[in-house]
Write a structure and sequence with these properties.
The chain is mainly α. It contains 2 helices and 2 strands. It is elongated.
Length: 71
């Protein structure tokens, strides 16, 4: 078995991140929150939700996910 390179580790982390963001977007859409992935390494984050009034609901959903998977 060959040793994993730094590039292998970076690819793995980015793949996990990409899949996580996609999964979170599905969760938000299931709650009726329109959103999409950002592009260009947006400094405001990885997910753009269309309606600013959805922010409290988005934060609550993210907190719930964090509590569920990072107790």
């Amino acid at each position: 078995m060959t040793e994993r390179t730094d590039e292998d580790k970076m690819i793995e982390r980015l793949t996990i991140h990409k899949n996580l963001i996609g999964w979170i977007i599905k969760q938000l859409e299931a709650e009726g929150i329109p959103c999409k992935k950002t592009t260009g390494n947006d400094s405001n984050g990885d997910i753009l939700y269309v309606n600013p009034e959805d922010e409290p609901k988005v934060k609550a959903i993210i907190r719930k996910i964090q509590q569920q998977y990072n107790p």
